[in-house]
Every structure is written in C-alpha cells, then in structure tokens.
Design goal:
Layout: E1 2-7, E2 13-19, H1 33-44, E3 47-51, E4 67-69, E5 74-76, E6 85-87, E7 92-94
Antiparallel strand pairs: 1-2, 1-3, 4-5, 6-7
Length: 114
C-alpha cells in the first residue's frame, strides 16, 4: 500500500489516501510515484504527492493542514508557535531554546518563549 496526499493551490494537504500496490506499480511490479499520482489524479483530480508513515519519503508523513515545501521536498507540519524555527534537515519545528533533559514534562509559554 502507498499513501498519497492531495494538495490545494497553496500546497496545503487537504486529504491523504491509501492506494493499492497494483495502482502504483509498473508492468514489472515496481512501485512508481508517477503512476500513483496519475491514478489519484484520474480518480479524484487535483495535485498529489506521495508520503510515507516512516518519513522515508518527504521527511514527514503528510497530515491534513501540513504544507508541502518544494524546496525541501518535504511535508511540514503547521507551525505550533510564532517563535519556533523550522529545522530544514527534519522539516520539523523546534523551540528557540532546548527542551530540558530532566525527565519532567513542560508546556511551552510563547509569551516568555520558555
């Protein structure tokens, strides 16, 4: 099974669907993203990109509201706080200060940026 994310005009994910292997494979049974995209487009229209649960394709599994960043070729989750910074290696947001490593649970305070 393969997973494909539909993008709107702003490259925001609007839905993620599962596509059977036979609908993404070439005549030799090899999975091909272009074949899967063509299948999704013919079925539902729109713009599609493949995604994967383990992040092996486009760094993060696409979720509704994620943005596809063509420069990073990655699905980026919504920014949780204005002060958080995008780590372009992982395409995930990081707090501007490191999370304490003391085994305790913390909530982010955007006003204090701690």
């Amino acid at each position: 099974m393969a997973h494909f994310a539909q993008l709107n005009e702003e490259n925001i994910v609007t839905q993620v669907i599962v596509v059977a292997n036979q609908d993404t494979a070439d005549q030799d049974g090899v999975e091909n993203e272009a074949i899967g995209i063509a299948f999704c487009t013919n079925l539902l229209g729109g713009t599609w990109k493949q995604t994967s649960y383990n992040g092996s394709i486009r760094k993060n599994y696409a979720g509704i509201g994620f943005k596809y960043d063509a420069t990073l070729d990655a699905f980026v989750p919504p920014q949780p706080y204005d002060s958080w910074i995008l780590d372009e290696t992982t395409a995930k947001w990081k707090a501007p200060v490191d999370y304490p490593i003391d085994g305790k649970s913390y909530d982010w305070n955007e006003e204090l940026t701690v």
